[in-house]
Amino acid sequence: MLNKSNNNALPVLLQVKDISKKFGDFYANDTVNLAIETGKVHALLGENGAGKSTLVKMMYGALQPTAGRIYWQGKPVSITSPAHARELGIGMVFQHFSLFEALTVAENISLALPKSLRQGDLSQRIASLSQDYGLPLNPDALVADLSVGERQRIEIVRCLLQQPKLLIMDEPTAVLTPQEAQGLFSTLRRLVKEGCAVLYISHRLEEVKQICHDATILRHGKLVAQVDPQLETAATLAQLMVGASVHQVSRDANGQMGDVLLSLYLLKQVSSTPFGVDLVNVSLEVKSGEILAIAGVAGNGQSELFSVISGEECNPSKDYIALLGQVSDGLNINQRRRLGAAFVAEERMGHGAVEHLSLTENILLSRHACNDTESSLNLGWLGIDRQQLMQLNETISAEYDVRKSTQDATAGSLSGGNLQKFVVGRELNRKPKVLVINQPTWGVDAGAAALIRQAVIDLSRQGSAILIISQDLDEIFELADSIAVMSRGQLSSTYAAEDLSREQIGLMMAGSHEQTDRATGA
Amino acid sequence: MQLILEKRAQASSIMNLWSPVLAIFLTIVMGGLIFAMMGKPPLTALYLYFIDPLTSWWSIEEVLVKAGPLVLIGVGLAVCFKANVWNIGAEGQLTIGALMGAMVPVLWGEWQSPLALLAMLCLGALGGALFGLIPAWLKTRFGVNEILTSLMLVYIAQLLLDWVVRGPWKDPQGYNFPKSVAFEGWHLLPMWGDGRMHLGLIIALIAALVLFWVMRHTLKGFEIKVVGSAPRAGAFAGFSHLKMVWFCFALSGALAGLAGLIEVAGPIGQLQPHISPNYGFTAIIVAFLGRLNPLGVIFAGLLLAISYIGGEGVQIELGISDKTTQVFQGMLLFFILMCDTLILYRLKWIGSQVNQGNQVSQAKKLSEGGAS
Fold first, then answer.
1. d(CA A490, CA A60)
2. Domain check: are A24 and A170 in the same one?
3. Lowest-confidence segment of A379-393, B65-79, B296-310, B333-347 by average pLDDT
4. What is the distance in angstroms between the Cα of A351 and the nearest Cα belonging to chain B?
5. Residue numbers of the domain that contains A47
């Protein structure tokens, strides 16, 4: 913990005074005040749609306030653009990354840097800086082959290279393991010690308590409270955020387990890209009524595993995968859906949904070939039945509390949490017998996460087999009946959730199971 | 003061519609300037270029005759480009389509029946499609960039046609001119009007309407949009990117081949070394000017057809080289791609404070000047 005795000596780095932002008639921010001090980690808390992003975008120059002022080191400024913000010394790590997939890590970083910082051996500097701050990165890796967690590291390193005075981080730990998160926290502690300020946006209240010195809480665009997180509990913070107590996810201790609905047997897959991870002898079984969670650090083969199980990559010559008792290696993703499986991809934008398409068209995206339910879609060659899609859209939105600006909004206009509820709801609405879900609540607020988790549990209690791939241990312990851990393309044996501690999982994430598993061929 | 491009939060739907209009306007202004610099009266030249073709019935007919192949090829390319597949070689597919279809009159000249015409149309489409599948195969099998291969194949196709009409298919009674036999009877498309309008125009119109329907209302159209704009989401939907490459080349190749056959079985009436004034390339402009929308392509096709007729007009009236047609078409593509930038970006003047200088002084200047 940093010492807090010299509070009064800390100068205010950035101050926001009575700032408002109006979209049409809607106040996204309504006379918000906030002061960030040098050498402190300041938390910004709030549910989805509370106005956090709007506020931060104004600080970063991406939006201009309707009213109010921003002061930088005591002087009023109008931050005209993100480039201007960076020149002032404000760096930001976004929740959705802006990286070119076809370029390497070093090339991506180089593109965003001003000329003066591009000189010299950038790769070398990236490697050493990233090692230094506990964010290991291979400067020559192609971004396309990197996991979300690794991509985030690029963004962080990109900011740090510019030695910002204020670092804004949007949901930084959402994709990290406990150990990685601890690593990031020591990075942040080091930064504030070096005189940097950090604005930390998160839904994880334990974290906020652990590293933040101040917390500002927004609700419906208004400032609700400014508190010292050390003096609050996670429960009181959550209450301030939501305005009521948060729904606790409930789970019966004993779900009724039945037949094996999804099984992998000694699955091997050589990665199709140079920087991907090979899968080695992956075996698992998920029974009806069971939730099996795969824990692991991003980039250890989880995305490869997801694409093999989902059938985005299929292998007709093999027999590793069985869905509902049927060998499925040669089936494509839609044939697997017709068997009764459903899939939720890790990245909701660009993979699970298309940004500029409407919600109804995004329903069509994964549902156009599903005729396993009563709500199979009419796609006669007279054309797509928009009416039916519209009804389905309303059903899903109502059932999973998807909040949107218009009835058939584009996917891109939804906030992260609402889009995730939509993407999950689109699949759960089919009542699939097998559900494979990668990072179910990545970067989603507490309310939306609770809703999604509860829906997943309810589905399993109706007899579906569910495989969750997650990096969030809280989530895993909240949901899973059994747990396996993935590291470097290998999967540990499966353990009952109650038999494992966080420390044991942490060790397995680091690879403690690899040798023994390989020896026994588990 | 400094002019910068700033990314819009959302693509502007207004600019999406106005960009072609703005591009046409800029092309006309620039064209006028070029005429003036050549010492020709710009207003007269522009009038001859864009308005005069629409003032008499025979030239309107000519415009329609030229618009037919442009629309037919343009709608195929619009679908291709929408799916992010870049077929630049429609001119070559057009040539091979014409060659394949001409097999009927050249090799089986005795066969006179409506079926012969149908066979020619089918062979034309088939030839274009097969020739289009070469870059598709190279792309899907070896990962070769389809822009290069499809473009280079154009020259192979044109040289093949050149050889065929000078060699094996030369008309024995043709006084040694490099031309095939003249097509007759059912080897020619039904014509009407002053004898220039033909069945091909109706085929082009139907193709545009059908593709409009497909893009708007069917799963295939949805697939094309998704695969083109978000490949990973396409894979998630179970759409195959590789199959899409095959489909797009087959479709656009077939339509280009059909257009080629329609030219030789329509206005030209025989094979000769040059059968197209670069319709296959001009159709790329048509597709973009038409916003990659089959209905838009109809209007764009008409406009580009006017530029051909207008080019001939200024050549006759003012003695300006007919290469101005290509200059105008080139400028139009240039301006439309330029204006399309404004769909995703907006122009913004920013104060000179933000040019250079250290951060502190900059912050100071901004704080002084930025009271708005």
1. 41
2. yes
3. A379-393
4. 4
5. 7-242
